[in-house]
Amino acid sequence: MPTIDPEYLHGFSGFAVPDIEAARTFYGDVLGLEVADGGMGLLRLTLPGGADVIIYPKPDHQPAGFTILNLAVADINQSVDVLAERGVEFLRYDGFEQDERGIANGEPRIAWFTDPAGNILSVLQN
What pTM does this model have? Predict the structure, then answer.
């Protein structure tokens, strides 16, 4: 079976939103991530560590029922406080014991929230 020469591969993931400008503001200003124009109406999100994610417009977008992006943080308490100050509301899930801020204190410690499109994200601390 032929193989693909890994020298030519570049992996990235992507997800949809109905409003690119709302995504630009949320991911750049609220989450403080590096957001750039990706051409053809796309955004390029550079995650800590250098991985790229594309965000593309899809007017009839329906958010997935699972977490699409996890952000590992050094201090989840501080991260949740900062995000809450910026207007982020944290989700609560049945079956998870979560504190008053929405942090599930298992392993890893994790808190879920959504972007303006309803996509589920998390901050987590190992």
Answer: 0.89
